[in-house]
Specification:
Elements (H helix, E strand, L loop, with lengths): L5 E4 L2 E5 L10 E3 L3 H9 L6 H18 L5 H16 L7 H18 L5 H37 L6 E5 L14 H10 L3 E7 L6 H12 L4 E4 L4 H7 L4 E4 L3 E3 L4 E4 L2 H11 L3 E4 L5 E2 L16 H4 E2 L2 E2 L12 E4 L6 E4 L2 E3 L11
Parallel strand pairs: 4-5, 4-7, 5-6, 7-10, 8-11, 10-15
Antiparallel strand pairs: 1-2, 2-3, 8-9, 9-14, 12-13, 15-16
Helix pairs in contact: 1-2, 1-3, 2-3, 2-4, 2-5, 3-4, 4-5, 5-6, 8-9
Bound molecules: 5-S-methyl-1-O-phosphono-5-thio-D-ribulose.
The site of 5-S-methyl-1-O-phosphono-5-thio-D-ribulose has 17 residues, from helix 2 and strand 9.
């Protein structure tokens, strides 16, 4: 059974505390929007799709308890709360797109005089609940398309070796995962030889979370430190790199976990195809290029300490951007639930 990062039933939400993994498995109760904001901001839940789903579900839980019977007040409160949730972490676009969609829904339900306050609440909560199912379906499609593309581009019909960065699996989504979904799909096709996952300093999503998921799924895998990437590509044949995304601009420039950009440069140098696996909810067609993507900077303590232990020399200045932007020119293809697109062909998605 795959790992369950989000446990939801109507009126109740618990999330697996990813700060404690892999050593402890503990679920945290999310009672409403304030809790939702905190678990996202503290990174107890992380990964672009999971951030969006947990944020919206925290609103669904709060709304379920709310006895408000004035649709206009409900609409106004929903808008304020969604904008607040979006502010918890700025780089991933998924929560912003979900918030825009939900605000539009609230506007139309509020304006429609045939809709009662009870119906408003029911339809609004159901729309949020639908995100859980849709995300898993989308990830499975991403997995299939990514698997097909990688196998088609690899030489012969031998086994493939994949390098991935950060965590994009069940823990980062509603289930199955994006880049890790492609890896799962390759494993299911029996063509996967080996996966290399980076530690992903400083927060160690690779060492703590991806390694945990790979071991859990019994996928043959090896953990490497981030600085081994070029040496790995130079010494072992890597079939492809597959990573996730927090925001893809209209021209294909992609913001993802810090370190992705240098992996893409190494991949280009070694002739290794570099894929981004991302649902359409990670694509921000309103941004023409990656230059305008806001990059979150995290507290320096995430760099200076490992757990409670300080490792950096006291007094040193730190810079801790959480993401970087990989230019479209370094990306072979963007794997979505609608198929695999060259970065300069994202506008074609709309016609699919
Ligand atoms: C399917 S998750 C895609 C991305 O969100 C992932 O690669 C990533 O960068 C996560 O960053 P994080 O800071 O852990 O939220």
């Amino acid at each position: 059974m795959s790992l369950e990062s989000i446990r939801y039933s109507r009126g109740s939400l618990d999330i697996l505390d990813q700060l404690l993994l892999p050593l402890q498995t503990r679920y945290v109760k999310v009672e409403g929007v304030e809790d939702g904001w905190k678990v996202i901001n503290k990174m107890q839940v992380r990964g672009a799709p999971a951030i969006a789903i947990v944020g919206c579900l925290s609103l669904a839980v709060e709304l379920e308890k709310d006895n408000n019977s004035d649709k206009k007040v409900m609409r106004q409160e929903i808008e304020g709360k969604l904008n607040y949730l979006v502010s918890a972490r700025p780089t991933a676009v998924n929560i912003k797109l979900a918030a825009d969609e939900l605000i539009n829904l609230a506007n139309s339900l509020s304006a429609d005089e045939t809709v009662t306050p009870e119906e408003f609440k029911e339809r609004f909560i159901s729309r949020i609940e639908g995100m859980l199912i849709k995300d898993i379906e989308d990830n499975k499609a991403i997995g299939r398309y990514g698997c097909e593309a990688i196998l088609k581009n690899s030489e012969g019909d031998g086994p493939v070796r994949i390098l991935t960065h950060c965590n994009t699996g069940s823990l980062a989504t509603a289930g199955y995962g994006t880049a890790l979904g492609v890896i799962r799909s390759l494993q299911e096709s029996k063509r996967l030889d080996h996966v290399y996952c980076t530690e992903t300093r400083p927060y160690n999503q690779g060492a703590r979370l991806t390694a945990y998921e790979l071991v859990h799924e019994k996928i043959p895998s090896t953990l490497i430190v981030d600085s081994v990437v070029s040496a790995l590509m130079n010494s072992r044949r890597i079939t492809a790199v597959v990573v996730g995304a927090d925001r893809v601009a209209a021209n294909g420039d992609t913001a993802n976990k810090i370190g992705t950009y240098q992996i893409a440069i190494a991949a280009k140098h070694h002739g290794v195809p570099f894929y981004v696996a991302a649902p359409l909810t990670s694509i921000d067609m309103s941004l023409t290029s990656g230059e305008r993507i806001k990059i979150e900077e995290r507290p320096e303590r995430e760099m200076t300490h490992v757990g409670v232990h300080r490792i950096a020399a006291p007094g040193i200045n730190c810079w801790n951007p959480s993401f970087d932007v990989t230019p479209a020119a370094l990306i072979t293809g963007i794997i979505t639930e609608k198929g695999v697109f060259a970065p300069d062909k994202l506008s074609e998605i709309e016609s699919k």
